[in-house]
Amino acid sequence: QVQLVESGGGLVQAGGSLRLSCAASGSFFSIKAMGWYRQPPGKQRELVAFITSGGTTNYADSVKGRFTISRDNAKNTVYLQMNNLKPEDTAVYYCKEEVLGSWGQGTQVTVSS
Fold first, then answer.
1. Beta 77-82 vs 18-24: how paired, if at all?
2. The dihedral of CA 38, 109, 89, 87: what is its sign?
3. Minimal CA–CA distance to 78: which of 45, 39, 107?
4. Neighbour-count burial for 45-68, b at 16+ CB within 10 Å, e otherwise
5. Bridge partner list, 36
6. Residue 99: predicted pLDDT
7. From CA 70, how far away is CA 12, in angstroms rounded?
8. 3-state secondary structure the chain
9. Average pLDDT over residues 13-32
10. pLDDT in tens, 86-102
11. Is 24 in contact with 78 (CB distance < 8 Å)?
């Protein structure tokens, strides 16, 4: 089982930036696809961004051009750089290891208008 710990959330004004980190324990991180998801208040969890073991990325249309997912295999960490944040980006953000389906505990991102 993989343990995932997210960090970097917080309160930011619209137009601001945050960088989320997800540190993974366990072996073989470099060959695992990783995803960032979010769950806005009262809504279902949705995929935000995805990165394969080879570095190929995919994004939800709502965040394209604003968010960037990346990974540092030497640190067993995946990042989500979020720029030009909007109030509708407010949510709990989770990372997920896509092979075994392990989730982190989530980190709150709140964007004020």
1. antiparallel
2. positive
3. 107
4. beebbbbebeeeeebeeebeeebb
5. 49, 95
6. 87
7. 21
8. CCCEEEECCEEEECCCCEEEEEEECCCCHHHCCEEEEEECCCCCCEEEEEECCCCCEEECCCCCCCEEEEEEHHHCEEEEEECCCCHHHCEEEEEEECCCCEECCCEEEEEEC
9. 90
10. 999 999 999 999 988 99
11. yes
Residue that has been written with the tokens 């030009």 in this structure: 84
Q: State how beta strands 107-112 and 10-13 pair.
A: parallel
Q: Are 44 and 36 in contact (CB under 8 A)?
A: no
- In sequence order, the 6+-apart residues with CB closer than 8 A to the CB of 22 are 4, 5, 6, 7, 34, 36, 77, 78, 79, 80, 95, 104
Task: Return phi, psi of residue 53, to 5°.
Answer: -60, -30
Q: What is the pLDDT of residue 90?
A: 98
